[in-house]
Amino acid sequence: MPRNHVLPRAVLIGLVAVLAASAWGLSATSSREFCLSCHEMSPQAEEQRWSSHALSADKKPVACAECHLPPGFGPRFVAVKIYSGLKDAVMHFFLPDGSQPGGGLIRAELQPQARRFVDDDNCLRCHRDLYKDARGEQAVSELGKIAHDSYLGKNGQARSNCAGCHRNLAHLPVFDRRLDANRAFAERIRKELTLEQARAEQNPNEHNQKEEALP
Description:
Number of helices: 11
Number of domains: 1
Largest sheet: none
Shape: globular
Number of strands: 0
CATH superfamily: Di-heme elbow motif domain
CATH topology: Multiheme cytochrome fold
């Protein structure tokens, strides 16, 4: 084979290998298991377990990336993935845990930015009809219709994304459980915690094994 053909072929093979490795890396680091491998995510994982967004309509667990990364695998996905990945790495390795005195991960301060990373297109994949409830069975309230008219540009123009109005649907920090809008979710968490505590008292060995298995 002529030498001038070897170099382009080697470059092509190398480029394909880099692209394949990058695609695999982006996919692997977007999995629920990878997200929950950091101890900071344990509270969010527990809250989601008891939320209305724990399972999809077909009863499959909802992965973190299904809400927190743009759909598809285009430039927006890659840009958000790189930005959020670098941000999370810095927070994990260089900031103290906010659950400890003097910690840097304060959820109340992180919430507004976190909501920006819930892409509306992700919400609309499941909630296709904004004038029906989540199950697509009943019409939304009159207030909901007015709000969604504004979101769709039929009655003014909304300045908020979906998560800006529909807050605390998958995660509910302790400090927001007192809010009236979160009453049902907070009550569900309270009941589940009570049941888990009762089970732990009856089977302490099994409870300790679950605690050790948490990330």
